[in-house]
Every structure is written in C-alpha cells, then in structure tokens.
C-alpha cells in the first residue's frame, strides 16, 4: 500500500472524528494522581507519563503527519508562522522544533530529544529566530529582533527572561499550547539536570522558577485547551504511548503551582470535565495500555548499510502473571519484509507480564536493518498473557542511499573577545543535513583538549569559555553518517575586535627566528602554529627584540593590536 497516503488518511480521521466527549482516557492511567497535592501530585503525574515509546529523531516527520496537519489533511499546522506549506510538498523549508530548547538539557543525550509532546513542525526562519531563548513577553517599547506576524523575538518585559537577553513570544492563539507543553516537560523529565536555567531550576519540585510559573499559568488560563490540543494529545498517545495530563486536566497545573496548591486532586471530579471521559471496563479484564491496536512504529529513513532502532513501551493492566506475553514479527499480506525487523535480535520474544503490569511497564528494543533501497513494512503481534485475541502493530521503515556528504566550509571566527567567539561555517552544496558537529580543540599548557558540539538548524556556534588559543573544524551529519572534516580555523587573542591602539607592530625573518619591530612596548606577544596551538608567550617585548623559533609557519599576535601576522621561518 502507499504508506504516505495511509498516514495522511489517519491524520484526517483523528482531526475529524475525535472530540472531547468521545475520546477516552485509559482505565487507571491516572489513578496515582488521586488524593495527591502539590509536589506529590507532580511526581505522581511524572510516574504516569514518563514511561513511553521512544522514537528515532529521523522518524518525526512521519509522526507529524498524524499530529500536526490542519483539518483537510493537506496543510502543515505550524504554530510559529502563518506561512502555508503543504504536506504533499514534504518538509521543505521547515524544521523539527523543540518548543522546550534541547540545549537546556543536553540535546541528543536524553529521550526528551524526540518526545512528540513538545516537538512541532516550524518554518525555518521562525525556528532559527526562536533559537534557545526562553518563552516570554516582548517589550514593545524597544526594538524587536524578529516579527513574522505570528512569532516575535525581542527584549523581555520587566521581571521576565530569567537573565536572558531576549525572549520568544508566540502568537496569543498558541500561548496556552506552549505553556502546557512546558508543564509536561518539567513533569515528565523532572529528574533531569538542567544546563540552562532561564525558566527552570534543578529538583523534582517546583522545577519551574517563580517568574515562569506566573507567566505560564496566566497563558494557560487565557488560552484554554483547544480542540487542536485534544486531538493532538490523542494522536501522540496513539503513537507514543503517553499523554499530556495538563491537556487532559487543564486545572492540574493550578493544583501543582497555582491557586489550588495544597488542595487534594480528586480524580473523579476531573475525569468528565472538558478533557475526556472514562470508559468503564471490568477491572479483571486483561488488556494492553501500550501499544494500542494499529499502533505504527515508524523508523523513518535509514541509510543503506545502517540500522535503525526504537524502544517500544509494553504496558498492561491485569495481565495474567502466570504466563508471559509473546511478541512475534510476521509478514503482512502484501510484503515479505519480516526478516528486516527483529525484537532484541530475534523474531519472537516473551516478556514478563509481571513487569508489564507495573506503572513503568517495560521497554523492548525493535530493530530495522534494511537490505535494499525502498519502503519496508511488517507487523508485530502481541498475544497471550491473558489477552483476549491479540494486538497487532505496524512496523515501517524507509531505506535510502548511503549519504555521500561533502565537508562544510569553515569560516573565520567572529565576535572574538577575551572570553568568547563565534564559530561559523557554510555548506558548499545543497545536500540535506540533519545537524552539524563542531570539533573544538583547546590548547592549554602544551596539551590539546578536543570536544564535539552538536549544532542543529544553525551555521554558527558561540563559545563562551574561550581559553585563548583554539581551533575548530566542522562536519555535517545525515542519518548517522558523518562528512569529512572542514579545514581548521585558528582562533587567537590577536583577533580581538574593537581594540583601539597606536602601536605599530611588525614581524621580520631573522637568522634565529623572528625580529619584532614596534613603536611601543608590547605587554604580551603570542606565537601559535598553524593548528592554533600556542608555541610561545613573551612579555614586555620591545623594538628589535628577537624571538627564537625553529623552521615553520607561525601566527604572531600582540596585545593591543587587532590583526595577527603570519610569518615563515627558515633558519
């Protein structure tokens, strides 16, 4: 079957057929919240929503076709721009936007990186302007950095920003949506260590800091839960296995941070509110909460010769603990791709119903290892364990040609100060890239220290702990494949901008190295090799001083002089 059309059809179905009254929250899903208050209530919500299926980042565009398409099924629902972009044209000109900036928790190293509950499609310029700025309200009395009629970036109003220079303000239509996405992130991932704390603080409660709590609660009140959010929450649950409780229960945030703090959250009082109804079922009936029937596990694009994987959440209620659940991969009626999908390395697997019955459930690794270019699909069937019948889910992946990547072109560093600089680069072709790696090398006390920094959706990166002698190269990454490294760019203090001086500085070859000419005493003179490594530092250098150097090519910089000098030494 044509998988693209199948997905679009499902997105249409979800948009048109589900309403607040018709959809149902799984029996017992939120039982742990009942009777809890404040911090204990937040932790109970964390325990309910933290277990979920973990998708690959490359598969998200496929899932966006379930979660972020306007009614009618033809147009992307972009909360960051008013531009009209059609699903039939793919994702050209768009990014996968982390509404809660990924740099705040460390990017790809945590599962929040691909969590659909806070990821949305966004037009590239709006996403780039948003950057990693905190949410906030822009001060209209000052100049505005970016305004596309939907999103705005600028200086924060008094009391906001948490120390950040700029804030990102969404359109009024979506302020509540993003507030509830932030409530979700700081609850689901309350045990994370935050690397940026404009809006958050470490610790399981309150996690949000005081100014952001005040603003987000206000946004949530002024922009109540919409049908869009209800439908999206249901779609995410169908494909990720967890929900946003702040959409299911709009007042939950008030019990945790707001005007109902200290009051007990009585679950029965909220289960029929504006967020859904419980479908009563016999407690003794064995069932799976995750995955649901017709769940689609999407691996996205995988390069030929590479392997994709996903963590599938298996979570049930009242499963028969005297037996096991059986997982098996089968060919469906139209393909013979079952051999490309495995469960922890095999085609069948039995898992403990005792563990599956727990609140956390259990995760099973499903792998996709294609052997030919094209789309592949099979079916995973879950049976036994007291289930009546079986649960079948679709497995789908697309194998593409192995990327042949060209090295990016590294550009000279800009905005160099004594403590910071901005690394820059550009693509030399129009090839598709997922993200970039900046290989930063620091030269300290005669040794080289290298770190790799991931950069998404930008072609620059600002270093804020410049050590005084560094170099960098850049690589592009596509589907886990790395390009060759760019040429190396050296960064030295001699490039410090906005330095005013009357010193005239020159370097001339000498039999023993180099001869310095200067109109005044140079407080600090540094000599680096072409890799950026500091070779020598001299102080109080005067006119006609000789610096002894071996044969080689060097960069000489002087404090108080903006431009370094390149010199070749031939003894």
Q: Radius of gyration in whole Å, from Cα?
A: 28 Å
Average pLDDT, to the nearest integer? 86
Main sheet record? 5 strands, mixed
- Overall geometric form: globular
Please mark out the parts with pLDDT under 50 across 5 or more consecutive residues, or reply none: 1-22, 273-282, 495-501
Query: N-to-C terminal Cα separation, in Å?
Result: 74 Å
Structural class: alpha+beta
Count of alpha/pi helices? 10
Range of helix content: 10-25%
Strand arrangement across the biggest beta sheet = 9-16-15-11-13
- The total strand number stands at 31
Indicate the proportion of strand residues: 25-35%
Describe the structure.
The chain is an alpha+beta fold. It contains ten helices and 31 strands. The protein has a five-stranded mixed sheet with strand order 9-16-15-11-13. Helix 1 packs parallel to helix 3 (60-67) and helix 5 (175-188) packs across helix 6 (210-222). The longest helix is centred in the N-terminal third of the chain and has 15 residues, at 3-17.
Produce a short descriptive summary.
With 571 residues, this protein is an alpha+beta fold.
Outline the fold blueprint.
Layout: H1 3-17, E1 24-25, H2 38-49, H3 60-67, E2 94-98, E3 119-123, H4 124-130, E4 144-147, E5 152-154, E6 167-169, H5 175-188, H6 210-222, H7 227-240, H8 245-248, H9 252-256, E7 277-278, E8 287-290, E9 296-303, E10 308-317, E11 324-330, E12 341-343, E13 348-352, H10 353-356, E14 362-368, E15 374-384, E16 391-400, E17 409-414, E18 421-426, E19 435-444, E20 447-455, E21 460-463, E22 470-478, E23 481-482, E24 489-491, E25 505-510, E26 513-518, E27 522-529, E28 534-541, E29 546-548, E30 552-558, E31 565-569
Parallel strand pairs: 1-7, 9-16
Antiparallel strand pairs: 2-3, 4-5, 5-6, 8-10, 10-14, 11-13, 11-15, 12-14, 15-16, 17-18, 18-21, 19-20, 19-22, 22-23, 22-24, 25-26, 26-29, 27-28, 27-30, 30-31
Helix pairs in contact: 1-3, 5-6
């Amino acid at each position: 079957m044509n998988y693209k059309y199948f997905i679009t059809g499902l997105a249409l179905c979800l948009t048109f057929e589900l309403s607040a009254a018709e959809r149902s929250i799984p029996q017992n899903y939120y039982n742990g919240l009942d009777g809890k208050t404040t911090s204990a209530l937040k932790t109970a919500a964390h325990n309910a929503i933290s277990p979920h299926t973990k998708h690959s980042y490359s598969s998200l565009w496929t899932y966006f076709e379930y979660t972020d398409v306007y009614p009618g099924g033809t147009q992307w629902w972009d909360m960051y721009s008013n531009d009209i972009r059609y699903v039939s044209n793919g994702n050209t000109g768009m990014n996968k936007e982390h509404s809660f900036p990924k740099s705040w928790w460390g990017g790809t190293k945590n599962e929040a990186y691909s969590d659909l509950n806070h990821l949305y499609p966004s037009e590239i310029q709006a996403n780039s302007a948003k950057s990693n700025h905190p949410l906030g309200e822009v001060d209209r009395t000052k100049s505005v950095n970016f305004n596309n009629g939907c999103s705005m970036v600028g200086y924060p109003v008094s009391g906001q920003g948490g120390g950040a220079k700029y804030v990102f303000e969404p359109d009024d239509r979506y302020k509540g949506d993003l507030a509830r996405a932030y409530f979700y992130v700081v609850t689901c991932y309350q045990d994370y260590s935050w690397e940026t704390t404009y809006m958050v603080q470490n610790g399981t409660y309150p996690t949000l800091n005081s100014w952001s709590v005040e603003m987000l609660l206000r946004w949530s009140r002024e922009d109540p839960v919409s049908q869009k959010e209800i439908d999206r929450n249901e779609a995410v649950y169908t494909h990720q296995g967890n929900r946003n409780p702040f959409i299911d229960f709009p007042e939950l945030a008030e019990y945790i941070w707001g005007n109902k703090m200290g009051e007990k959250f009585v679950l029965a009082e909220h289960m029929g509110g504006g967020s859904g109804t419980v479908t009563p079922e016999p407690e003794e009936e064995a069932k799976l909460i995750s995955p649901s029937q017709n769940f689609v596990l999407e691996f996205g694009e995988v390069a030929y010769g590479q392997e994709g994987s996903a963590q599938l959440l298996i979570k049930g209620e009242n499963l028969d603990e005297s037996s096991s659940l059986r997982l098996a991969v089968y060919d469906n009626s139209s393909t013979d791709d079952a051999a490309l999908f495995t469960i922890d390395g095999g085609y069948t697997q039995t898992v403990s119903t005792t563990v599956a019955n727990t609140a956390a459930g259990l995760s099973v690794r499903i792998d996709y290892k294609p052997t030919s270019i094209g789309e592949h699909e099979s079916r995973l069937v879950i049976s036994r364990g007291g289930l009546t019948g079986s649960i079948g889910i679709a497995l789908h992946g697309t194998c593409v040609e192995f990327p042949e990547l060209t090295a990016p072109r590294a550009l000279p560093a800009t905005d160099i100060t004594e403590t910071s600089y901005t690394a820059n680069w550009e693509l030399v072709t129009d090839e598709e890239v997922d993200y970039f790696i900046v290989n930063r090398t620091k030269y300290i006390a005669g040794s080289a220290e290298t770190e790799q920094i991931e950069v998404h959706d930008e072609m620059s990166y600002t270093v804020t702990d410049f050590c005084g002698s560094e170099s960098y190269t850049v690589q592009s990454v596509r589907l886990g494949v790395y390009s060759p490294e760019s040429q190396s760019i050296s960064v030295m203090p001699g490039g410090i901008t906005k330095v005013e001086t009357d010193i005239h500085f020159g370097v001339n070859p000498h039999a023993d190295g180099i001869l310095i000419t200067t109109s005044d005493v140079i407080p600090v003179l540094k000599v680096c090799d072409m890799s950026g490594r500091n070779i020598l530092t001299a102080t109080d250098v005067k006119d006609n001083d000789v610096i002894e150097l071996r044969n080689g090519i060097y960069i000489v910089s002087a404090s108080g002089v903006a431009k370094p000098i390149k010199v070749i030494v031939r003894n």
